[in-house]
Amino acid sequence: MNVYDSQRMTGILAPLGYELTAEPAEAALIILNTCHIRDKAAEKVYSELGRIRMLKNDSSATRPLIAVAGCVAQAEGEEILARAPAVDIVVGPQAYHRLPELIARATKTQRAAIDTEFPAIAKFDQLPQADATPSPGAAFLTVQEGCDRFCTFCVVPYTRGPEYSRPVASVVAEAERFAALGACEITLLGQNVNAYHGADEAGRNIGLGALIARVAAIAGIERVRYTTSHPADMTAELIAAHGAIPALMPFVHLPVQSGSDRVLKAMNRRHTADDYRRIVERLRGARADLALSSDFIVGFPGETDDDFEATLALVADIGFAQAYSFKYSARPGTPAADQPQVAEAVKSERLAALQGLLDRQQSAFNAASVGSTIDVLFERAGRRPGQVIGRSPHMQAVHVDGPATLIGRIARVRVVEGGANSIGGRLLDEVPA
Ligand code: SAH
Ligand code: SF4
Fold this sequence. Notes:
Elements: H1 2-13, E1 29-34, H2 39-53, E2 65-69, H3 70-83, E3 89-91, H4 99-109, E4 113-115, E5 138-142, E6 144-145, H5 156-159, E7 164-165, H6 168-180, E8 185-189, H7 208-216, E9 223-227, H8 236-244, E10 251-253, H9 261-266, H10 273-286, E11 291-298, H11 305-318, E12 322-327, H12 344-369, E13 373-381, E14 387-391, E15 397-401, E16 410-418, E17 422-427
Parallel strand pairs: 1-2, 2-3, 3-4, 5-8, 8-9, 10-11, 11-12, 15-17
Antiparallel strand pairs: 6-7, 13-14, 13-16, 14-15, 16-17
Helix pairs in contact: 7-8, 8-10, 11-12
């Protein structure tokens, strides 16, 4: 979502004459687009600010304006200015359309400009559309932002604000534009993307399944994905879409967080571990080759050894193709932060055990792909010359020997090796060099 937002910010700054540079010393403006989800992510912002602050005193540099955007800006606006006086602009995720004004204000007054409002008008309708896709062939498209679920560990409802779904027509127009720019894959994004309920052209609210059908029908769009979804918002309509829409990729990132009903309740997740098992069963019933990924939190306040064992049992039952797991990080202002905390050493031990199991499942999933024939969307050059890297329908990184002309296109590949984090294949299609 931050990649998508950064792209929209680039779009609004282009008419003012700004272009991207990879060289901080050349920049007239540096925007840190930040994440507040865990303490580690938020702290990175201050170490990074310490580094780029040097550019302000460096006579060989352009003495850039420094802006902090994203959820750290939203949550810690004033604190950022106190801790890092070199910052000129603080802009929350709902105020990016006001960047030109903030830049003008900071330049003219030489005082920091800050905007962390949640305006009534959605930012998307105010920002110009992108003129490129972030990676060749693939594009992200935010369809829903914010969250009303208030899981007790999570800052998102506070930093991204209340749940908002973009109207269908504006999503479809943006997807058409990405297709015209060469995208064949679109990933629909939202903090809680399957809560999507945007209004269609007739003014009726439609769900994510129907939105996916609209996007999949656009000429040139061959792959649709969505992320991140909440188990309690997995509707029958969305599950059915997995069986009905071939372009909808057979891979769902469905965070479960814990396998213990007690912990799930304390997290305010509003479903049980068995509910999750049943949802997965129905998804696999709709599409047999569907693979899953998930997020896990270990060491949530009050989590016992038995609770953690229940998480391991759930993982063993489901079998994940990929997963992300984190130690619980107490976030100021969220309900769980005030509860008695699990010791750091216990969190580390549980994380290592969980990641061990998840890594074994990922390796087994990759090994099981060997011998199959898959479509790969190629994204970038590999580390070795003559190598290109892309994604399988199941989101595996795939490396093959082939020409750079493959990048941005889909080609058939025979999988010949499975590793821990990627698979290797041989090109089956004739590709013009
Ligand atoms: N909307 C998604 C998750 C968004 S946050 C959902 O409902 O599942 C992405 C992931 O960060 C979460 O799934 C969770 O695993 C992790 N996360 C969020 N807050 C956290 C915290 N306080 N400590 C540790 N991990 C956290
Ligand atoms: Fe955070 Fe996701 Fe829960 Fe919303 S549903 S509060 S984004 S974890």
